[in-house]
Amino acid sequence: MSERIYTAGLVVIGDEILSGRTHDKNIAQVASWLQVQGIRLAEVRVVPDVIERIVEAVNALREANDYVFTTGGIGPTHDDITVDAVAKALGVPVIVHPKARAILETYYADKGGLTDARLRMARVPEGAELIANRMSGAPGIRIANVHLMAGVPHITAGMLDALTGTLKGGKPLISETVGCWTPESEVADILRQVEQAHASCQIGSYPFFRDGRVGANFVVRSTDEGELKSCVDSLCDGLASAGFEFTPGGI
Amino acid sequence: MSERIYTAGLVVIGDEILSGRTHDKNIAQVASWLQVQGIRLAEVRVVPDVIERIVEAVNALREANDYVFTTGGIGPTHDDITVDAVAKALGVPVIVHPKARAILETYYADKGGLTDARLRMARVPEGAELIANRMSGAPGIRIANVHLMAGVPHITAGMLDALTGTLKGGKPLISETVGCWTPESEVADILRQVEQAHASCQIGSYPFFRDGRVGANFVVRSTDEGELKSCVDSLCDGLASAGFEFTPGGI
Question: What pLDDT, in 10s, does the model give residues A44-69?
C-alpha cells in the first residue's frame, strides 16, 4: 500500500542571495511549513533577477512537482520581474487584477496614493487568484500550481499562513532525533544496518563540533508513527549494545 | 570591450535542508567567497540525498558554468553519496585516493584507527585531486570543474580558504549601498531611470521593516569602480532632488 507523496519545488529569486549579501531565510521557512502540510520539498533553485532564468526554473519545477513556490521579485521596483516571468512560463499575458488594485488603493490611500510604481504590485498573470498579505499591501499570487510570494521573510510567513490547509497533501513526514557525543564514523555501521532493517524510514546523520567536542544527531524520518518508533528503538538498542551513550531528542 | 564573466553553480546536497531542520549557511558563504575570486554565483540547486537528483543537478550546472561546487554528503555514513553521484555524472569509477587514505590513517591513528566507515571518506572519483581540510581529517575533492566540499559550514570555510586564489576569475563585482527610510515604491522611478542611464551597473532594491518603520537599501553593482561611483552619485542626486533623505553605506 504505497501512499501518494506530494512534492513541491521552490524558486528563490534574487541577486541579493546569489551575491551573498542577504542570507536566505525562506528556504527553511517554506520547507518547515510544507512538512506540516504533508508536502515534501523536493528541490530548491536560487536564480538571478533574469526573466529567462526564472522561466526555466519555474517550468522545470512545476513539471516535476505538484506545487511550485517562488519567493522574491513581486515588489514595485524595476528589478521585480517575477510576475512577468511566471506569466511567460505559463504562456499567459500580464493583467492588472481588479481586487489587487482595490487592496492597494485602500492601503496607500493615506500614504500618497497609488502611483504607477505601486500599481506594478497589482499586476498578475491572467487567471491568477490572490494570496492574502496582512503585513503590507501587496498580495501574493496563485496561478495553476504556482504560488508567488514575497521575498521579505515575515511577509512570506504571513502568506504561508494564509495558504495553510488549502493545499492537498499526503501524510506529513514526521521525525525523531537521537544525539551522540561521538564521531559519526564510529556509528556509521549501526546507522546503515538499522536503516536497512526499516524500509519505510530514512536516517540522516548530521555531525557537529560544539564546545570543542565532536558529536552527531541522527534524524529518523517516516510518514508512519509506528514504524518511526520501531526504528528509533532499534537505533537506541544498537547504540546501547555497542556501548555508546546517546541523548533521545538530540543534542 | 566586453569582459569575460566567470560563473559558478552550487549544488547543496541534503535532506536536512529540504526538511527545514537545518538552516543553510553555505549558500551565503560560498557566494561571498566567489565574489572575491571574481566569479559570479549564477545558480544554486538544493537537492535531496538521492543519487539521480545529484547527478542531474551537477551535470546541468557544470555544463552551464565555469565551476561547480557541491556542499554536503562527503562524510562516513550511508547517506553520504556525493562522491558516487559526481563520479556517475562524470562517467568515471570511484577509487580510494592513496593520499586521502594516508591523511585519514594519520588523523585517526589515536582515535581508533581507519575503520571501513572512515575509509569511505578516502573515496574519490578517479582522476580527482584533494582539497585540504585543516579542520578535520577528510579532504574535499576537486575533479574537472567540480569541487566537492563538506556540509558543515566551518569545514566548508576551511576548504574555500584552501582554494582561495587557485581559480581563474574575472574582475570582482563591487557594490555600494545607499539606504532610505522610505517605501521603495516612492523611489521606484528614480531607481529605474538611474539604472537605465548606467548600462554597466545594476541596482537592486531591498525593502525592510525595522523598529516599526519602512525603508529600503539600494545596492548598486558593477565590475567598474568609476562607473559604480558615477551611478551612486546619480542615485544620490536623484534622491536629493526629489526630497528624500538617504544614508550612504546603507541602513
Answer: 999 999 999 999 999 999 999 999 99
- The reply to whether residue A15 touches residue B185, judged by beta carbons under 8 angstroms, is no
Q: b vs e for A13-47, b when ≥16 Cβ sit within 10 Å of the residue's Cβ?
A: bbbbbbbbbbebbbbbbbbebbbebbbbbbbbbbb
Chain A residues 151-210 with CB within 8 Å of chain B? 152, 154, 173, 175, 183-186, 188-189, 191-192, 195, 202-209
pLDDT tens-digit series, residues A118-175: 999 999 999 999 999 988 789 999 999 999 999 999 999 999 999 999 999 998 888 9
Q: Give me A14's grid cell.
A: 534574487
Residue type, A68: V
- Does residue A213 sit at the B interface (CB-CB below 8 Å)? no
Tally A–B CB contacts below 8 A: 205
Say which CATH number the domain at A127 has. 3.40.980.10
Q: Is A168 part of a structural domain of the chain?
A: no
- Chain B residue whose CA is closest to A195: B78
A117 and A49 belong to one structural domain = yes
B132 and B207: one domain?
Answer: no
CATH code, domain with A201:
3.30.70.600
One domain, residues A153 and A179: no
Q: Which of A116, A136, A163 is the last residue of a domain?
A: A163
In a domain, A54, yes or no: yes
Out of B163, B189, B221, pick the residue that ends a domain.
B163
Give the global pTM: 0.89
User: A244 or B134: whose pLDDT is higher?
Assistant: A244
Q: How far apart are the CA of B8 and the nearest CA of chain A, in angstroms?
A: 10
In sequence order, what are the residues at sequence separation of 6 or more whose Cβ sits closer than 8 angstroms to the Cβ of residue A204?
Answer: A218, A219, A221, B14, B15, B16, B49, B79
Per-residue confidence band for A2, with pLDDT thresholds at 50, 70 and 90: low
